[in-house]
From TrEMBL:
It holds the Pfam family 2OG-FeII_Oxy. Residues 130-225 form the Fe2OG dioxygenase domain. It comes from Prunus dulcis. It comes from the Eukaryota. Belongs to the iron/ascorbate-dependent oxidoreductase family. Keywords: Iron, Metal-binding, Oxidoreductase, Vitamin C. One of its GO terms (molecular function) is oxidoreductase activity. This is Fe2OG dioxygenase domain-containing protein. PANTHER family: OXOGLUTARATE/IRON-DEPENDENT DIOXYGENASE.
Amino acid sequence: MEKLNIPVIDFHQLGTDKAQLIKQITEAAKEFGFFQLINHGVPDNLLHNVMNVGKEFFELPSEDKASLYSEDARQSCRLYTSIDYVREQVHYWRDTLRHPCHPLEEHIDFWPQKPASCRGVGSYSVEVRKLSLCLLDLIYPSLTLGLPKHSDVNLITLLLQEQVHGLQVLKDEQWLAVEPVPNAFVVNIGHMLQIMSNGKLSSADHRVVTNNKVSRTAVTSFKHPSSTYHIEPAKALVMDFNPLYQAFIYKDFVSTYKTDTEERVSPLERYKFQT
Ligand SMILES: O=C(O)CCC(=O)C(=O)O
Ligand SMILES: [Fe+2]
């Protein structure tokens, strides 16, 4: 069979010629969709250890492996043969140990007891994950976010930014880049003003994307109400008063805001009156 010489890329260039490294990775990814990475920084001892764990596991006596055998694809850590042994017409000659590692605390209790060296797989997976994120950042920087989608919780935010793009605002379900204007403040309405104005003003979702050429610094000043402040739609600001949001104490909102934003649900939803 003819040999395919997929490009071999030296990751060491990250510290010496990053632009050249990005060029090589992008070209290889376009032309072959594959490349080999050397000098990637994952220590040799971790590479040898994980390889040995694999070999030692499959050399264990069957009775040690039997408890991990499962045809249930939902089981996190499992041993299985071929792809779908029960249903498939043709079996492939392959045994697989599926061994999820991230987040560690969710999976480590399901890892095999033997071989004991399995525990060392954790450090390998941390390093490989770091390397994958770094590669993604080089290949497609806007896939890595500096700050994920959110709206500010406070009243109003004044943001001073350099002439470096990164801030994006969600408008009509489209992400729009904010063009930096020298010495201008980017002023952003927070959730509290949306609520106090009974929805007349909007606290827009925004995010920050990274780029691989220059770093970006922004100075963000948040104007918060005091933590015990009672917030509600303001009668004086709203004509035809028909409040859309329930009243609350600011610090209570802040704690639900944190969990809701992490879970990517709108922090305003739980305070809306059901209509
Ligand atoms: O860095 C930026 O431009 C925005 C930061 C931001 O949105 C925030 O800190 O809430
Ligand atoms: Fe923000």
